[in-house]
Amino acid sequence: MFRLIKEDIDCVFDRDPAAQSVIEVITTYPGFHALMIHRFAHLCWNRGFRWLGRFISHMSRWLTGIEIHPGAQIGRRFFIDHGMGVVVGETAIIGDDCTLYHGVTLGGTSWNKGKRHPTLLDGVVVGAGAKVLGPIEIGEGARIGSNSVVVKEVPAGATVVGIPGHIIDRTKNKQTKEREEIASKMGFNAYGATSDMPDPVAHAINHMLDHIHAMDKQLGKMNKVLHDSGIEYKEQQMPSLDDCEIKE
Prior knowledge:
Elements: H1 2-15, H2 22-28, H3 30-46, H4 50-64, E1 67-68, E2 73-74, E3 79-81, E4 87-88, E5 93-94, E6 99-101, E7 105-107, E8 119-120, E9 125-126, E10 131-133, E11 137-138, E12 143-144, E13 149-150, E14 159-161, E15 166-168, H5 174-186, H6 200-228
Parallel strand pairs: 1-4, 2-5, 3-6, 4-7, 5-8, 6-9, 7-10, 8-11, 9-12, 10-13, 12-14
Antiparallel strand pairs: 14-15
Helix pairs in contact: 3-4, 5-6
């Protein structure tokens, strides 16, 4: 038991740079308090003292702002950062080394008995305000973005964002690199308009960048054809995108 508590304290230092001392973690971290109380409530629940387990869980919710059903199964080195508003349902299963931020819900989508809450495998991180709903499995090492709503299975190592949640591809293909080159010349941060953002403005900007790139290629080919045909073309000086400044 003491070894388990020591692991829980150590994982706070590993994942929260604001932690200063063991005394601070023990006395002022609601996520740590909620976890310690849950372990006792879960023991009561498994021994058949269901009402007592629920009452202990209810008191923990009142003290910490974190609601963990005593039936939920939680692994080792589990960390809840800040914690206010976290809800973990009865049939939820959380593996080792998982992290939840404030406002996270591991909830159900059915009133039927049986498995109705998510399973988080080892190393999963769920961002603030995210909702993971239903008897789905979140693969090992997966990341759930803040305020996302996830209702489908997530493979290991994937990153999910948006409503409804969708998996984003972190690999940079040729099209992404071309967009970033044009965007940097125009004077704004290309990372603010990536294709994985669930934002209609970003989607429109990406199409604009694709259109500009296609026009540049087409004009270059037309100039070459005119030159090869011996047609004189008086090229007009165009302002360089590198010299443009965006004025507010």
